[in-house]
């Protein structure tokens, strides 16, 4: 059993920064990719950022966060971080961490390409 736990959420003012962390526990494996998704109030969950360790390290971002968010992580430890800067009220959401098994593949922006999920951490950006 793999368990992902997010931390670092909270309340911040517009223009502020937060750093989210996601750590795994339980069965040990080296994830091929980890990602962050978010669910804004009244909306469906959406892709925010992902990092792949297949054939080198590559980061992917949604257009809405590109240039403001930075993803980093350690595949051996199944740990991923999301540094969020220049936060806007529309970034208010529950942020979920996700991880893939080594054998999983496909579009990093699709939820169904991830095998393990955290419970989420709330980020609230006040105007």
Describe the structure in your own words.
It is built from no helices and eleven strands. It is an all-beta fold. β7 and β8 form a beta hairpin. The radius of gyration is 14 Å and the shape is globular. The protein starts with a strand and ends with a strand. The model has no long low-confidence stretch (mean pLDDT 94).
Q: Can I get a quick summary?
A:
The protein is 0% helix and 51% strand. With 127 residues, it is mainly β. A hairpin with a 5-residue loop joins strand 5 and strand 6.
Q: What spatial form do the alpha-carbon principal axes imply?
A: globular
**Spans with pLDDT under 50 lasting ≥5 residues?**
none
Q: Work out the helicity level.
A: under 10%
Which oligomeric state applies?
A: single chain
Mean pLDDT: 94
- Beginning-to-end CA distance, first to last residue: 40 Å
Query: What's the Cα radius of gyration?
Result: 14 Å
Report on the biggest sheet. 7 strands, mixed
Total count of helical runs of at least 4 residues: 0
SSE order in H/E notation? Answer: EEEEEEEEEEE
């Amino acid at each position: 059993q793999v368990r992902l736990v997010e931390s670092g959420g909270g309340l911040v003012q517009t223009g502020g920064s937060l750093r989210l962390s996601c750590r795994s526990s339980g069965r040990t494996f080296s994830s091929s990719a980890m990602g962050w998704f978010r669910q804004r109030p009244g909306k469906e969950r959406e892709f925010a950022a992902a990092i792949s360790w297949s054939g080198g390290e590559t980061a992917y971002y949604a257009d809405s966060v590109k240039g403001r968010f930075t993803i980093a992580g350690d595949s051996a430890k199944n740990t991923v971080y999301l540094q969020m800067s220049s936060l806007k009220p529309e970034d208010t959401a529950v942020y979920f961490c996700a991880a893939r098994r080594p054998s999983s593949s496909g579009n990093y922006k699709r939820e169904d390409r991830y095998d393990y999920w955290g419970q989420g951490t709330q980020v609230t950006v006040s105007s």
